[in-house]
Amino acid sequence: MKLLYQVARFVCFEGEGDAGAGDNGGGNPPPKTYTQAEFDSHMGAMRRKHEAREQQLQKAQRDLAAQLEAQKNQKGLSEEERTALQGRIDELEGQFLTEKEKAERKATQEREAAAQQVQQLTADRDQWRSVYQREVVSNQITRAASNNNAHDVDQIAAIVGPMVSFKEVTDEDGNSTGRLAPIVKFPDVDVKTKQPIVMEYTIEESVKRMTELDKFANLFVDQKRSGLGGRGNTGAGTSGRVDLAKLAKDNPAEFRRLRKEKPELFYKSLGR
After folding, report:
1. ∠ at Cα 11 (9, 16), nearest 5°?
2. Last residue of a domain, one of 212, 229, 246
3. Sign of the dihedral defined by the CA atoms of residues 136, 137, 138, 139, in that order
4. Residue 187: pLDDT band with limits 50, 70, 90
5. How many domains is the chain partitioned into structurally?
6. Strand ranges (DSSP E) for the chain?
7. What is the mean pLDDT of residues 127-152?
């Protein structure tokens, strides 16, 4: 069965409404008719043409949005300029993104914003933690240097400071307390084997241990053993003599200073 589609035209003038059946109104051509196949083909062609135009428009919008995104990420833009560009990008994307794509884009933006916030909070936390830890270390070194009669706090800090790290504090059962404390990985000597070892001390313990080692004797006042002599310490033992060979080997700068400023010590050392 052949189906016919006809475009009906009703153009009536006064006195012409009673034309006989089948009369086309005075010789006008009959309206065009289409078969089902022709109609489907025509509509399909129109649909494809429309879809092609939509795709071209969407591509142009996507390209423009990408260009604006690249421009937004350039250095030197003010916050107002970036905000304006983002508004234009959002407007363009709203025209060509599907609802699913819009939802995915929004979720991505929210994740990125949350990640940036976490990153900033982490950076702030680390910065303040670093400031706090430096202050703790500085105060403890100052107190330890004073308790152990150091000549110069800065000298002690220069030696001990680089060896300090923070370690988690645990309770008697080995459980974490959530606190951190400074510890010093101190290069020491085993009392029995005389071999070098690394010990974990508190800052106070490490400075105290320094007072017991000959190589640090010049950094402290009133040491019972003879030392190299820091500022205010002659480097002489209880006998008033200076071990010239040891001083020249262990502390050449101090050797030259004493030789220039206190030559009498060298005379005593030589028995003069």
Report:
1. 130
2. 212
3. positive
4. very high
5. 2
6. 5-6, 33-34, 164-170, 176-189, 196-201
7. 91
